[in-house]
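Sequence only, no structure available. Ideas?
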Amino acid sequence: MIPNPALGVVFHWLGGLASGSFYVPYRGVKRWSWETYWLVGGFFSWIIAPWVLGLLMTNDLPAVLSATPGATLFWCYFWGLLWGLGGLTFGLTMRYLGMSLGMAMVLGYCAAFGTLMPPIFDGVFVSSVLGTLSGKVILAGVAVCLGGIAFAGKAGMSKEREMSAEAKTAVIKEFNLKKGVAVATFSGVMSACFSYGLRAGDPIKALTLAHGTSTLWQGLPVLVVVLLGGFTTNFIWCVILNVRNKTGHQYISPVEHTKEAAHVPMLANYLFSALAGITWYFQFFFYTMGETQMGKYKFSSWTLHMASIIIFSSLWGIGLHEWRGASARTKGWLFVSLLVLVASTMIVGYGNYLGTLPAQ
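Reply:
I predicted one. Tokens follow.
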């Protein structure tokens, strides 16, 4: 299949839309603790959706995974496990730094490490990236993306400065810059491990292609293994919280002996959590599709993914009136960040297009 970077950018935008939208259905969950609805949604994200779509869209999925070398399965699972740690510590970052600064730091680290480490580890960074015009253009796009993330952080911090002291304390009760920077660094670096897990799954992609799977769907079997690692980390933590907070009963029944028990919409909670989980999975469903279109510079997919997530999550924030009351200056920073992030996806896509040409 001939790579089509422009189509790849569209797929990554769709993945970003899914990632930026997945939390919205959780707003419909009533009277469940975070750990309960997160684990229910995660079961659909990390177990059900990968297997169902993997079985539907690829050939001989069980046979492909059985034929995969043990070392490959281990590294895909291992990187997924570490990625899960990054996701769990993301919440701590929000507690210590607030949403705007915390998200900017985590996604900045995640974008940089997730994009640049695979070609550095493969030993092709100097020759194939720094040594080619297309590689330099892609690096410029990565730099622009990081700039867009910085502008998004600037907009968020400007918004927080405009909040009242009471509102600010309610949002960031445990502000601690030193702890926050340390946790954000850990979270960002660990979150980038998903990119390494996808890279470690290249032998699985080769096997599923050999079994007749379309090139477009070659990444789906890899997601089955990487997301199993992420499920393990989240499952352990959510069960610990269920035990500690005595919320384990919520999976099968509402709180007993209270008037509120009759008002726990069990079926709706499961449906909203399932919808959120499946929507979350589609970010990587489209990611693997986009990666197939990026040619020899598929590592740049991670930058496109990060940029798209911020673009669409910011648009959701606008649509849900989270920026209502912000000054024109603050909204201006947000607008600039969106323009810069969209530009970064175009630059990265153009760099990949140059890489498809016979000569540079």
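The radius of gyration is 21 Å.
Hope that gets you unstuck.
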